[in-house]
Amino acid sequence: MFWLTLIPVLLHLTRGNSPCLGRSLGISPCRTQFFKRESLTLYCGADERIMTNSKSVSCSQKSHECYITLAGEHHSGSYWCDSNSGERGEAVNITVTGGSVILESPVHPVPEGSPARLRCLTSHKSSKQLVVVSRINQSCTFSRDGRLIGVGLTGEMSFAAVNRSHEGLYKCTFSGVESPGSWLAVRGELCLVSTW
Fold it and tell me: Are residues 163 and 79 in the same domain?
């Protein structure tokens, strides 16, 4: 009986959802910042539906999956999963920017003592005018709550074991261009599976 209960949970987690048990929004690609004209997918459990405070999202809020193609700044907002009984899951804030630099950071709260990674990303258009996102493999600076915390020589910064002092609003800067901010939350919870 234990394994029958565990298998759906593991399948749900492998799709990029929160490493901690509980109802959380899944996102693919697994980040909260996106460039304009990118495509992304949001999903909840089969018995849930996607909800948002964005007033102009072009997907049905009655479905447990939402496909956004050619994302625009109007898609920025808070998204969460609601169960059929009205129980609300943890919200995720998504930002769509017209800028040239974004920050890739943990989507969901990171369990205290677990590793975490921040990456600076940039974009360019392909010959078919599609947005191609790539890692910045050069020196980038990272800040928390407006204060410089370090330089990532290969475009990323890692924490071996996060604690509450790591919580805050993070940004990265590359060639003078700053990304939008993303909040890194740390939670003291026992986790079954970690995606890091």
Answer: no
